[in-house]
Amino acid sequence: MDNKLLWKIHNWVGLYVGVVIAFLSITGAAALFRPEVDRLLNPHLTKVAPQSEEASLTAAVQHVIATHPDHELFEVELPKPYLDTWNIRLRPKDPDPMQPTFWEVFVNPHTGEILGERNYFKSFGYFLRNIHVRLYEAQYGRQLVGLAGIALLVSTVTGLLIYGNFTKKQAFGKIRKKNLRITQADLHKFVGISALAFNLVIAITGAWLGLQVYLMEGFGMKQPNGFVRSEKPFSAEEDTCYPLDFEEILATTKREFPALDVRNIRPTTNGEGIVQVLGDVKGQAYERRSNKLYLDKRDFSTQRKYNISAQGFGDKLYYVQESFHFGDFGGLPLKLLYAVLALGSAFLSLSGFIIFLERTKKKRAQQAKYIPLRPLLIRWGGGMVAFLVIVAVLSTNFGIAVPSLLVTTGIYGFFIYLVIKAIWKRFAGARPFSGTSDSVV
């Protein structure tokens, strides 16, 4: 491919999508530690002193349901490394679309005492995930993130093709100090090469996760570990209210699927009369809680057992996407490595802007609206931080609806502004890309 064309594609993607890639890289680095942050911020909900006694999970669930008559059981989350308590999750029977709730009740598994409750949509952990996965935009945020994954893939591949030969001419790690542009250019190249494999993985998995609904529909794919019962032995109300023995569910799971480390127990409410037992299998590097055991509510007979290790290549490929994207299979050391590499990806976007701005400095300085490099970076960096703080405050105080409406309006309002501005410049006879600080924005 023509090198000039590669440069144009690389520059275009970096200038117009770079700020989104930088934003997703920073928020992704933070989202890696969502469980640890939640445990740190809410020790009264997630930490209990170890005891030899163990309360009845069945009794705890029944008590929680009885004290929340306007809710129905969604699932029970069992203790794990970052959660010492039982997290009994409920859904409202009559949900309010303007005030969505996903209620969590934390119970001491040794005493059965309720330690506290919250709306998960108001937790800081939910904010960290939603700001990265959806940009906190309710309608098409996930798809926009998927498109940003494609942009990162294009930027990474074109960068490799452009700078591949350069690494043969200059010693790896040698940074020239001639001027800011040269220094940033060398750092940009070496960080890009160092994080090449990581960026390719993040780009491919991010694009898949963001556009998964459309890709699965286009390729005629179905959820690999899904199960739908052909007959429905109960009405929806009977299924929702059917009493369950959770100790028996755990005992049956241990007998039928001994390798499964149970994480969640989720009963159906649509009449199927099924209990889904979700968990992990030691030694796997797949998406968490993707191994499943489906039990009949009436006699706990096994309806389906799904162990990813026993499946074909397609299923295994499907379930490495999220685990590879979030590094959720190698413990805290791998998360730390992912965080460093993610910040490296953010630096690539920043250094790319600096290189461009320094290269066009003389031409931009002749413009009436010229803004020097430092104030421009402070403006954009401050704007990004302000955006995160505002959405975080709104999210943790008002839940999902208010900040989502604000972000949705802001994102599409900004897009409409850019389109109108581009049309105005075109009809006014100006070049669509003038190299000014405004055009970079």
How would you characterize this protein structure?
- The chain folds into 3 domains: 3-35 and 130-216 and 330-440, no CATH class; 43-122, Nuclear Transport Factor 2, Chain: A (Roll), CATH 3.10.450; 231-310, no CATH class.
- Helix content is 56%, strand content 12%.
- It is built from 18 helices and 8 strands.
- The chain has an 8-stranded antiparallel sheet with strand order 4-3-2-1-5-6-7-8.
- Strand 7 (291-296) and strand 8 (302-306) form a beta hairpin.
- The two termini are 29 Å apart.
- The model is unreliable at 432-441 (pLDDT under 50).
> Which consecutive residue ranges, at least 5 long each, have pLDDT under 50?
432-441
Beta-sheet strand percentage?
5-15%
Q: What structural class do the secondary elements suggest?
A: alpha+beta
Biggest sheet descriptor: 8 strands, antiparallel
Strand line-up of the largest beta sheet: 4-3-2-1-5-6-7-8
Helix content: 55-70%
Could you spell the SSE succession in H and E letters? HHHHEEEEHHHHHHHHEEEEHHHHHH
- Number of beta-strand segments: 8
Measured between the Cα atoms of the first and last residue, the distance is 29 Å
Estimate the mean pLDDT confidence.
Answer: 91
Taking all Cα atoms into account, the compactness measure Rg is 25 Å
Counted up, domains total: 3
Number of helices: 18
Shape: elongated
